[in-house]
Amino acid sequence: MHDDRRLFEFLVLEGAQAGLSWETILKKRDNYRAAFSDFVPATVARFTEKRIQKLLADPGIIRNRLKIEAAIKNARCCLDVQSEFGSLDAYLWTFVANRAIQNRWKRWQDVPAKTSESEAMSKDLARRGFKFVGPTICYAFMQAVGMVNDHLTHCFRYEKIKKMNR
After folding, report:
1. What is the pTM of this model?
2. Which domains are delineated in the chain?
């Protein structure tokens, strides 16, 4: 995935998922798109306290003040990254040397929760002011956006994803 808006969307959703099941977030994804202005970073960056109050009252999303405030803060940080690197995409893909990592896991128990790449991403995002970007969240993000292929080698999706990332 190389679209800044979608990358920002997944960054917000992964942060919202912290401590919850991914299924919970997926069920609320359309609500998140509406609540967070289709994840346009420049729009989310302008959210005010009044908008935060509206979001805290929205049963269609996770009503956690810290996660909502993190999404807004991350939008502002995203704009800074875009200004420095030209795009969020250009910045994030540097953590995998601009090429998706193709793992060859045979058992789901072997798939790590974090890697040196996700730890580096987490550290740098945090240094830039991003919130809810620990190494495990970053690794889940990397998996979700195609930076890492962690499908098991016998999974019907493994080869398809591998070919997509060449």
Report:
1. 0.91
2. 4-164 (1.10.340.30)
